[in-house]
Design a protein that fits this description.
- It is a single chain.
- This protein is about 25% helix and about 25% strand.
- The strands form 2 sheets. It has a 4-stranded mixed sheet, with helices on one face. Strands 1-2 form a two-stranded antiparallel sheet.
Length: about 160
């Protein structure tokens, strides 16, 4: 893992999820979704944790209007709780089928979004509401679309 820099002082985003049925959740996310196990630890009184590698992490901050719009586009109604976990995959349709076969509940089938991705919504083990998404255009192509860009003003001038 690379060292933090002044531009990026955080090395990793780690989402910690309590799972009542630990074995089922581990099998779903590791074996079906395909997140490789990076490390696992156990302790007294049956304490167990597995750290699964989900690739590059981002933190998506959305205001209430954006959250509502995403639900409307992807599902057609408001369904997401305050926190939703999204996984980028190579094949949203195939992944959705595998996850449903493994016990996830499909909330909305793969849908092409205005931001040019194919997104499906599912209720998954450990009480997570998840999106699996497949990018249909690369980032450079998407930046040319109406409504895309960044709010980042760039480095502050001193």
């Amino acid at each position: 893992m690379s060292a933090p820099t002044d531009d990026h002082p955080v090395r990793q985003l780690r989402l910690v999820v309590e799972a009542e049925d630990y074995e089922a959740a581990l099998a779903f996310y590791r074996d079906v979704l395909g997140l490789p196990e990076q490390a696992a630890f156990s302790g007294g009184d049956g304490a167990r944790v597995a750290i699964l590698d989900a690739g590059r992490a981002t933190l998506e901050i959305a205001n209430p209007a954006q959250k509502k719009m995403i639900d409307d586009v992807e599902v057609g109604r408001q369904v997401a709780p305050r926190l939703r976990v999204a996984f980028e995959v190579d094949d949203a349709r195939g992944t959705t089928e595998r996850l449903v076969a493994a016990g996830a509940t499909e909330v909305a089938p793969p849908t092409v979004t205005p931001w040019e991705s194919l997104n499906a919504r599912l209720d998954a083990p450990a009480g997570l509401h998840i999106t699996v998404f497949q990018e249909l255009r690369d980032l450079e192509e998407r930046r040319t679309l109406d409504g895309f860009g960044t709010d980042d003003p760039g480095p502050a001038e001193v």
